């Protein structure tokens, strides 16, 4: 049992948007582990960070990923930091993982400067650059395909992924 495709990438790369397009084209469900964490915890991710801390959030995220990787035939999008966990990276081996890459400038435009993302508090551009630089090798490590999302429509990106999936 396995998802059809798993999308990874930094905030603003388009994971949720592209996953929805792919799921519609494939006629399957889209699962977003961030949404699963929020539903299970009964509160938004920023509140989980504030009330319980990042380690608690990462434990909830890990559980959501394990559960979602056991589902068959879905398009799965992971939270931007999910690949920080070595067990998650190991679990992704053998799956069709696509790294949605995005430039810093484009990511800042998409994420915005006033969003409620706990790891982007303060100078959003600097925080996002630091996250992207630290995580890029991990995204590349787990991915079978890297797709650049700058200046492309969700339909164009989905078409490239579907072509790769065969």
How do the strands and helices of this protein lay out in sequence?
Elements: E1 5-8, H1 15-26, E2 30-32, H2 33-41, H3 45-52, H4 54-69, E3 75-77, H5 86-92, E4 97-101, H6 104-111, H7 124-142, E5 145-148, H8 154-165
Parallel strand pairs: 1-3, 1-4, 2-3, 4-5
Helix pairs in contact: 1-8, 2-4, 3-4, 6-7
Summarize this, please?
This protein has helices at 15-26, 33-41, 45-52, 54-69, 86-92, 104-111, 124-142, 154-165, and strands spanning 5-8, 30-32, 75-77, 97-101, 145-148. It has 166 residues and is of the alpha/beta class.
What structural class results from the helix and strand content? alpha/beta
Give the rounded overall mean pLDDT. Answer: 88
Helical segment count: 8
How would you spell out the order of helices and strands?
EHEHHHEHEHHEH
The spatial strand order of the largest sheet comes to: 2-3-1-4-5
Kindly report how far apart the N and C termini lie: 18 Å
Which band does the percent of strand residues land in?
Answer: 5-15%
What overall geometry do the principal axes of the alpha carbons give? globular
């Amino acid at each position: 049992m396995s998802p059809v495709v798993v999308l990874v990438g930094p905030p603003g790369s388009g994971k949720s948007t592209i996953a929805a397009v792919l799921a519609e084209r494939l006629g399957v469900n889209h699962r977003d582990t961030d949404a699963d964490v929020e539903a299970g915890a009964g509160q938004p991710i920023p509140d989980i960070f504030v009330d319980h801390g990042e380690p608690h959030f990462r434990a909830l995220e890990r559980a959501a990923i394990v559960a979602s990787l056991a589902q068959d035939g879905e398009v799965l999008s992971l939270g931007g930091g999910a690949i920080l966990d070595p067990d998650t990276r190991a679990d992704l081996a053998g799956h069709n993982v696509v790294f949605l890459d995005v430039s810093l400038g484009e990511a800042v435009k998409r994420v915005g400067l006033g969003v409620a993302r706990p790891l982007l508090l303060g100078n959003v551009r600097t925080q996002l650059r630091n996250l992207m630089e630290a995580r890029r090798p991990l995204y590349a490590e787990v991915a079978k395909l890297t797709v650049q999302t700058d200046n492309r429509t969700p339909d164009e990106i989905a078409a490239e992924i579907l072509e790769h999936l065969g």
